[in-house]
Amino acid sequence: GHFVLHRDQQSRFNCDKDSVHSGHETMRLIEREADDFASNLLMPGDRLREWISNRRIDLHVLSAIAKRFQVSFEALCIRFIKFTTQRAILVYWDNGFVKYEWRSSSAIKTRARIRRNADPQEPLPGTLAADASVDQEWNGTEMSAAIWCPEEAQHMKLREFKHSFGARDRVLTLLLLESAEPRSWDRSWQDEDAEDCADRFASSGQFPAR
After folding, report:
1. Helices (H), 25-168
2. What is the reported pLDDT for 194?
3. Would you call 51 exposed, middle or buried from its count of C-beta atoms within 10 A (0-12, 13-18, 19+)?
4. If you ran DSSP here, which 8-state letter would residue 114 be given?
5. Nearest C-alpha neighbor of 88 from the set 194, 156, 174
């Protein structure tokens, strides 16, 4: 990704955590662009859409796709959020606190976001994420969407999935919500990271080969 996109900007790249998370803004931007490039190369969107369309999604399905692409389960889940037409939210917990939250485009348009209860954010009471006795829930547990998302009506449902990594200090939560009509919203609700990387390339004058 750096060779194709950034070789005219600098001659060396250190793709370590310091560069990605604590480097200056330009460094973080080019690392994100290289990461998007790698995601498109390793997990082509057209193939992913084909494999997830018209299927009942659970973590077994996503794990199988990750193995077919030969990528990490976490990377595949993030990619799924970007390409699914379902209202979906992915939350990564690190030592009991939110590290990141990704929302699908339809979740953004319907204002589906997790309820904030603290800073830093902790798992919400009544959820699998908060239940230390549950390590894995790959088939999904149905519950009221309002438990997670304050904008949701009480009759709306979601399925919560949970995957705990080896040490149990890192957990992935996947929420799949019932369909809903887009709500009126202003652009302040739109996440910066919600736009597709192809849009970012085009806006900067770069047009990746298809």
Report:
1. 25-42, 45-52, 59-69, 73-83, 105-109
2. 46
3. middle
4. P
5. 174
Of 39, 37, 21, 102, the C-alpha closest to 75 is: 39
Distance, in Å, from the CA atom of 132 to the CA atom of 70, rounded to the nearest integer, reads 30
**How far apart (Å, rounded) are the C-alpha atoms in residues 111 and 151?**
7
Between 191 and 160, residue with greater pLDDT: 160
Long-range contact pairs involving 74-81 (C-beta distance under 8 Å, separation at least 24): 74/172, 75/39, 75/42, 75/43, 76/43, 77/172, 77/174, 78/39, 78/102, 79/39, 79/43, 79/48, 80/48, 80/52
**pLDDT tens per residue, range 157-173:** 999 999 999 866 899 99
CA dist 205 to 34, 57, 199, 202, 208, Å? Answer: 16, 36, 10, 5, 10
